[in-house]
Amino acid sequence: MIYRHFFWDFDGTLYDTYPRITRAFLRGLMDLGVEASYQEVYALNKRSNQACARAFAARYPALGEEAFLAAYRRHSEEESIEEVRLYPGAREMLQAVVKGGGRNYLFTHRGESLFKYLEKDGIAALFIDQVTSLDGFPRKPAPDGLLYLMKKHGAEKEDSVMLGDRDIDLDAGKNAGISCALFDPENFYTDYDAPWRFCTMEEMRRALVGNEEKE
User: Would you list the domain boundaries of the chain?
Assistant: First the structure.
C-alpha cells in the first residue's frame, strides 16, 4: 500500500450525489423564475454549489448569489437518500485500505446529512474521523481542515493522500503538501494536473492499495 492515510471527499467521490444536487438546484431556479438546462447546472455544480450560484447571480444580478444558494438549500434534502448510491467499488476500496492497515478520513463541505448516508450503507466504521461543514473550517481549497486531521492523527505528509473528484479537493491536498488522486469517471477535469487519475474505484484500489482480494 503506497499511503497509510486516505482523506476522502464525499460528494462525487464516494457517492454519486450530483444528479440529486442538480435536480435540487433546478427546482430552486424554478422558484426564482429562472430557466436552465440540466447539463449546464450539472457542470456548474461539478465546480461547486457556490460556482453555480455565482454564475447565475452574474446573469441575474438583481437576485444575488445568496438567493440562488438559499433556493437550492430549500430543495437539497427533498429526495430520499435511498436513491443515492455509493460508486461501484467504493466500499471495497475503503475495506481494502482498512485491511491493509491504513486509515480512512472524510474531508467534506457536507454537513450533518453526511452521517445518514454512512449509516444507510453501513460504512461509518470504515472511517477514523471527519471534518465537515459543522466544524467551521474554511472551505476547500483551503487546507485547514485537512491539516487539522493530519495533526490530530499523526499523519505524515509522505504517507497521506487526498482523494476527490474536483480541482478544489486536490488543490486542498496540494496546499497541505500531500499527494492527491483525482476520481473522474466522466473525464470532467481532463486538463487538471493530477499526480494520480482514476475513472473507477477498481483502478484506484489496484494502484494505491494493491491486489488484495475484496472482502
Answer: 5-16+85-209, 18-81
How far apart are the C-alpha atoms of 184 and 121, rounded to whole Å? 22
Helix (H, G, I), strand (E, B) or coil at 42: helix
**167: amino acid identity, one letter:** D
Does the CA dihedral 174-170-198-119 come out positive or negative? positive
Fold topology of 5-16+85-209:
Rossmann fold (3.40.50)
The tens-digit pLDDT sequence of the chain (215 residues) is: 999 999 999 999 999 999 999 999 999 999 999 999 999 999 999 888 999 999 999 999 999 999 999 999 999 888 888 889 999 999 999 999 999 999 999 999 998 889 999 999 999 999 999 999 999 999 999 999 999 999 999 999 999 999 999 999 999 999 999 999 999 999 989 899 999 999 999 999 999 998 654 44
